[in-house]
Amino acid sequence: MPKSARPASNGNTDRVGAIYRALRHAIIEQALSPGAKLPEDAIGERFGASRTIVRHVLGQLAAEGLVELRRNRGAAVATPSWDEARDVFDVRLGLERLIVSRLAGRLTADQIKRLESHVDDEERARGANEPLSIRLATEFHIVLAEMTGSPVLTRYVSEVASRCGLILALYSRPHSAECAVSEHRAIIAALAAGDADRATAVMDQHLEAVAGRALIVSRPPRDYDIKTILARYADDAPASLAPAPRARVKR
Asked: pTM of the prediction?
């Protein structure tokens, strides 16, 4: 491969990562509601990326259950049905029980410190930044899965926890950051003490409380502008990914 071609490849990789993170965070934080359209041209314009690159990212998110690719209608944030909601939470409950059983009494001091730091971030976001609070609450469970060292468990927990977030965005009462913080701390304490039964009981109670907030009546769709929303999530993108200014035409 010629040396001149390598930067383009690296640039495309950077764009894929930046767009993926922005869309995923916007969906998990519920800035983009279930059913919201995801136009390739608008997303590409925001990140200075081709529609091919955007389409690749949307495909990744579709594989995770966060996006639906609709023939002749473009992509949209996934809209889980009410019928699948209970099944999704039951699957998540089984996965998270497996996670805590593997971690109880096996966490290192550094891992405990990382978990406690994460919950500290959740507490700081509580009442100050509700979207961030929602995302951090979800990511706590993904961090636990990562600590098992199992890529399979990490992937499944990440996907099902994100899917639960979409369900809650559609059918639930408001997110309870205070409950999430206290329950997450109780889970850490039980795992650190090696009490698998206690950790499982707290996790069950925590997830049942989350599922219990789900309602049958969905929320009305919101008006939104995709480029304005994604602008808030583009901070991770390198400066080189900013759309190039259009050249002025002399008249």
From this structure: 0.71
